[in-house]
TrEMBL record:
This is Germin-like protein. It is found in: Secreted, Extracellular space, Apoplast. It holds the Pfam family Cupin_1. Mn(2+) binds at H115, H117, E122, H161. Disulfide bonds join C37-C53. One of its GO terms (molecular function) is manganese ion binding. Gene3D superfamilies: Jelly Rolls (2.60.120.10). GO terms for cellular component: apoplast. The keyword Membrane does not apply. Belongs to the germin family. It comes from Carya illinoinensis. Keywords: Apoplast, Disulfide bond, Glycoprotein, Manganese, Metal-binding, Secreted, Signal. It comes from the Eukaryota.
Length: 231
């Protein structure tokens, strides 16, 4: 059998790399095909992966600026935290640009409960306070650290994570995502407040508890409890 020369092997490797490069460079959201595409959210009858563009003639300078993250969030809820979203739903100019940001306010002891973002990696910085940030890998390994103002963290896409205010006062985190709408699967709501409900016998078997425990947990997550903004 003829053994390929080293030059042929190298050429084959180069071709493989060239074929893979486009795949490796693809971000969570597809690249835009124009300078901007300010979302036209009034076009509700049109269904696309994102939003249709507002006509350029209707776009104004104000479309490219958003002050929502300057407002302190209301943390008077069961978690003691509030997420203010700066995504395409609140800042339409982000449409097709593949980025968004959140502001997370914490009361003393407040927690941003375990959740995941199915469409984005998260990077954040603590602006105020002391915050315990943790996530769990698909290998069931838990990584965590207490961060103070100016320190950053990163959460790989899709992994379950949380933040908890462990300081004596309020805390504030600003997070960024590589998606215009990263989505959020908030585990307490997903498991115990879905519509329709996950059957009790599934949850009792999964958590190895009695049905009355599941019913007790479900009772704590009424529709009134869903005051924190997640998308």
């Amino acid at each position: 059998m003829k053994i390929p020369s080293s030059s042929h092997v190298h050429m084959l490797l180069y071709l493989v790399v060239l074929l893979l490069l486009p795949l490796l460079s693809v971000s969570t959201d597809p690249d835009p095909l124009q300078d901007f595409c300010v979302a036209d959210q009034s076009a509700s009858s049109i269904s696309v992966n994102g939003f249709p563009c507002k006509p350029a003639s209707n776009v104004t300078s104000d479309d490219f600026f958003f002050d929502g993250l300057s407002k302190v969030g209301d943390t008077s809820n069961i978690f003691g935290s509030n997420v203010t979203g700066g995504n395409v739903l609140t800042f339409p100019a982000l449409n097709t640009l593949g980025i968004s940001m959140n502001r997370v306010d914490f009361a003393p002891g407040g927690v941003n409960p375990p959740h995941s973002h199915p469409r984005a990696t998260e990077s954040g910085v603590v602006i105020e306070g002391q915050v315990l940030v943790g996530f769990v890998t698909t290998g069931n390994v838990y990584h965590s650290k207490v961060l103070t103002a100016g320190q950053m963290f990163v959460i790989p896409r899709g992994l379950v994570h949380f933040q908890k205010n462990v300081g004596v006062g309020k805390a504030l985190v600003i997070a960024a995502f590589n998606s215009q709408l990263p989505g959020a699967v908030v585990l307490p709501f997903t498991l115990f407040a879905s519509t329709p409900s996950i059957p009790d016998d599934v949850l009792t078997r999964a958590f190895q508890v009695e049905e009355k425990v599941v019913e007790s947990i479900k009772s704590k997550f009424s529709s009134r409890a869903k005051t924190t903004h997640y998308r």
